[in-house]
């Protein structure tokens, strides 16, 4: 079981960066901000002043996150490759067999990256891209729309763009497959933030998770920023909340403790591990009946 203990001198530069990120999320999530305008404003003098102030509670929280990230990265690095492959297969099988997946017609997912040691999604993505509406053991498998992430910059801005085949993907500078901005005809790809229909299911990665919905990312803030904006959109459109599911290896799940979070960290509704579907929120529990 991983515990949150830190040691060593405070890293003021990391702390300052995190404060700027929180201020950025606060601006994005405020009712007066536009969900379409994802680029953060230039740092003002007041923001720069804030970044050099010292808040012991926030500093301790970010030190806890940093410590936990290091421990989980080490645990992932030390996973036996055979066990990793077995868990990849089991996790994807749980997703593909789940009624909540089969009934979803619009899905935001991710292309797994071996270098980041993310849970493999190749079978899930292939299933969606080759999908036609079918019926399997009483569950209708809906024809699906798939949106995949494209990182816009280093300021936590990310888009989810619609793809219809692997030919729609290119390698990014970080060696991760991402959608191209335009399709083969030169037309801009559909951005999920401009879609006419809501997303039913989000399948998200992460570095660590707890059994209370807490999710620890890799410190970039891309998913938290995007999900905050999408939450604002569905409120505006009066759409149903999508199911937010995280895929996790066993070593990424924190037992009996909560991951340290800020109000700007978006919790997940459920986890899928090799052990099966783990509902957390009331939304997820509805899928168990």
Give a quick summary of the entry:
With 289 residues, this protein is an alpha/beta fold. It contains 8 helices and 14 strands.
- Write down how many β-strands occur, each being a DSSP E stretch of 2 or more residues: 14
Q: How many distinct helices? A: 8
Low-confidence stretches: 1-22, 24-52
- Note the gap between the termini: 31 Å
The rounded Rg comes to: 19 Å
Helix share of residues? 25-40%
Shape: globular
> pLDDT average, as an integer?
83
- Across the major sheet, the strand order is 5-4-1-8-11-13-14
Key terms for this structure?
289 residues, alpha/beta, 3-stranded mixed beta sheet, 8 helices, disordered N terminus, 5-formyltetrahydrofolate cyclo-ligase, NagB/RpiA_transferase-like
Outline the structure in words.
With 289 residues, the protein is α/β, with parallel strands linked by helices. It has eight helices and 14 strands. A seven-stranded mixed beta sheet has the order 5-4-1-8-11-13-14. A three-stranded mixed beta sheet has the order 10-9-12, with helices on one face. The longest helix is centred in the first third of the chain and has 22 residues, at 56-77. It is globular and about 50 Å long. It starts with 11 loop residues before the first helix and ends with a helix.
């Amino acid at each position: 079981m991983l515990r949150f203990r830190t040691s060593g001198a405070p890293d003021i530069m990391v702390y300052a960066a995190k404060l700027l990120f929180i201020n950025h999320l606060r601006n994005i999530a405020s009712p007066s901000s536009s969900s379409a305008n994802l680029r953060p404003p230039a740092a003002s003098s007041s923001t720069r002043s804030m970044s050099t102030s010292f808040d012991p509670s926030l500093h301790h929280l970010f030190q806890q996150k940093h410590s936990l990230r290091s421990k989980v990265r080490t645990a992932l690095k030390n996973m036996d490759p055979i066990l990793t492959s077995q868990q990849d297969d089991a996790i994807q099988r749980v997703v593909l067999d789940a009624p909540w997946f089969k009934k979803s017609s619009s899905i935001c997912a991710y292309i797994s990256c071996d270098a980041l040691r993310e849970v493999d999604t190749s079978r899930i993505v292939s299933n969606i891209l080759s999908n036609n509406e079918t019926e399997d053991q009483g569950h209708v498998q809906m024809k699906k729309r798939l949106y995949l992430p494209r990182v816009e910059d280093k300021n936590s801005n990310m888009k989810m763009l619609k793809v219809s085949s692997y030919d729609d993907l290119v390698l990014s500078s970080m060696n991760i497959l991402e959608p191209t901005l335009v399709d083969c005809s030169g037309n801009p790809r559909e951005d999920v933030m401009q879609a006419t229909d809501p997303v039913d299911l989000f399948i998200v990665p992460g570095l660590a998770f707890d059994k209370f919905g807490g999710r620890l990312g890799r410190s970039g803030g891309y998913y938290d920023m995007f999900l905050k904006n999408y939450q604002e959109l569905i409120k505006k459109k009066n759409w149903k909340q999508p199911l937010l599911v995280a895929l996790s290896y066993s070593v990424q799940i924190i037992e009996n403790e909560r991951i340290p979070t800020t109000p700007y960290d978006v919790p997940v509704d459920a986890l899928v591990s090799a052990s099966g579907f783990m509902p957390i929120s009331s939304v997820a529990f509805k899928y168990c009946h």
